[in-house]
Amino acid sequence: MKKHFLSIAATLILVTGFSICAVAEVDISMSGDLVNTAYTYVRKVNTPVTHNGGDMELAGRARILFEGYLNDFTSLRFEPEVIYTETFRTGSDSPSRADEHEGQIHEASVRFEEFILPSLDFTVGKQRITWGKADGMNPTDNFNPDNLSLMMGGGVMTLGSTSDLMDKPYVWGVRLENYFDNGIKVDFAWVPRVAASNFEVDDIQSYLPFQAGIGVTYPWKEDGWQSGDTSWGMRVSSTVGKMDFSLSYFRGYDDLPAIRSVNVDYSLALVAGGASMTEAMTGINSIEISYPRYEVIGMDFAGEKSSIGFWGEFAYYIPNDFAGAVYAQDPSISGSDTIIPIPIITENYVKYTLGMDYTFRIGEEGLYTNLQFAHGMYDERRYTPESRDMGIAYDKGMLSNLQNYIIYRLEYKFDNDEKTLAVMGFYEHGRVGSRDDNQGHMFIPYLNWEVEDDKDLAIGFIGFTGKEDRSKFGIYRGTLKGFINYKITW
Amino acid sequence: MKKAFFASALLVFMFALSSAVMAVTGQEVLKMADQAFKAPPDVTAETKMILVDSNGKEKVRDMMTWIKNFPGQDKDSWRLMKFSAPSDVKNIGFLSLDEDLMYLYMPEFKKNRRIASHNKKDSFVGSDFFYDDLSASDYSKHYDAEIISEDDSSWKLSLKLRPSSDKPYPSGTITVDKVSHMFTKGEFNDSSGQLWKILNNKNEKYGNYWISVDITMEDVKKNHKTTLRMENVKVDTKLEDKMFTERQLKRPVK
After folding, report:
1. pTM of the model
2. Three-state secondary structure along chain A?
């Protein structure tokens, strides 16, 4: 129903837009791109899904962009897209093929420059609201949901920067940007209906620390969010000296769900005898999952020192009315009430990214080096020690407690920048001193060739190492996928 | 006879004195060239970037260029460039406000990205120009110049990079036109003293100002060259400061 509504709305916008353009004799330009990524499993892997060597995946995307100015101050962008994936299990004993196609509106926005005030720009429609100065790992950038398929080594790749691995789908919303004469910019954004990550419910369930068969309720699954579930935020930016600064405030919803409550049985007698809650747990009855609402107070900066670029981004998360709880009951005592609510998420926590880049000269060419340290990935939150001890929240892996990452990218361009030899990746490192426990690594070496101005071809592979079942990337340990990616722009 | 001798001696002395007074140093010529280049308060132009590889294959990119100079001030020029074609580079923007205050707008990410000055020795979108070549910083701030030859129409200067400077070219020569005081040719060497790049400028007069309307940078080692050709040039249109902001950098090209 939602998709039908969006399709009708998009068609109306398109028809109206083009009618206006036709009447006003406005030039609307049309361009587009086609990106295809083909993956091949080099060897057999068992986790999290078994693949044989030779199994293939194909992910593609086609977009058509209509854009133009309706008058001196009003511009229009409309970009529908078709996304498709196909999986060929050719390496298996019983070959199979599965495919999925989806059409949607990637972008549909109207931008009014100098709206009411000469200093004000107003954008309405489906858009990308970018906040933060870190390179792709932006804990203050919360309006658009996350596309985690890229980070997990799948989906359509558009190689070129770390941001490409952090692609975020666009959201319907409103954005006001006011540029004061003194260089201060004030940004306000409102998203009337928050959007979830593309991580499927079933995928999420498979990453939760519970056995199959336990009753899981998703209050949001059927209806999505309620109409009042909006996100909004403000941001103030300026340049002081030669340093760019921003302060931001966001109030909205996490695009990934968290455990809201867990009902467990436990034995009071065991607790009375000195056993821990974990030891006394006899079973989990049910789980409720929901999207936490939170406030995020952010700060970011960017500058350079001695030709080295640096940036930082800090986000202080304050979950609202969402600590989550474990409700423990003793079934051996008839009519016992919930007796011990244990909070799952801490009252507040900080995620941050610190980064730097530099180009080392190798002859006349340069080796571009980009390094970032991140505390907390998109899917991570700080869970209470009690919930982690009880096994209610994972200490590592997907949807886990906050972990540390080094995100790196090295690029060597040559042949008049037509060819790029690069490697980028994420090295996951848990708490200091526990390297052997939960380290994981995803790495993507590739060669990109700009065949012509509008044609790019890339070849490379995606590899995973680490502790199996003990880290986000380690779960894919042993996976080695070759890929060929091509992009045609017209 | 005696009077004639003194008169001749006086004339010779006066001539020698005037020559000494009139003679300019290489550094002064270089400064004049910087000033001439920055003389127009602002410039707006439609620019074609033409890249030609060793096989003669051409790539053409269109962009709009806005430049704001600060004549008489020790301040770097401001530059804004927005690509309009082909489609894979459309709306990419580059804003230079100082040698170490530059931004790049990548439309795919809808984000202005601060780029640090280590990038200044990198190629500007695959061309033979470095980011630094486009930041329009004064040569006289970074190079020591000496006149190595002179004729009726031009000075030829040798350039040597000062140890404190971090420009891409350690040395070279540059030719400055005596009428316009504009650069007409430059030859830049690599760190081993080998010829690396050749710059050719075609300058035209617009009102009271000379503008480099056709700038070709040739990479001799790669046998690759790039021409920046300005068309529909407008000078001194009182471009406002707000044209050179991140707001403008993000705006789509019209």
Report:
1. 0.87
2. CHHHHHHHHHHHHHHHHHHHHHHHCCCCEEEEEEEEEEEEECCCECCCCCECCCCEEEEEEEEEEEEEECCCCEEEEEEEEEEEEEEECCCCCCCCEEEEEEEEEEEEEEEECCCCCCCEEEEEEEECCCCCCCCCCCCCCCCCCCCHHHHCCCCCCCCCCHHHHHCCCCEEEEEEEEECCCCCEEEEEEECCCCCCCCCHHHHHHHCCCCCCCEEECCCCCCCCCCCCCEEEEEEEEEECCEEEEEEEEEEECCCCEEEEEEEEECHHHHHCCCCHHHHEEEEEEEEEECCEEEEEEEEEEEEECCEEEEEEEEEEEEECCCCEEEEECCCCCCCCCCEEEECECCCEEEEEEEEEEEEEECCEEEEEEEEEEECCCCCECECHHHHHCCCCCCCCCCCECCEEEEEEEEEEECCCCEEEEEEEEEEECCCCCHHHHCEEEEEEEEEEEEECCEEEEEEEEEEEECCCCCCCHHHCCCEEEEEEEEEEC
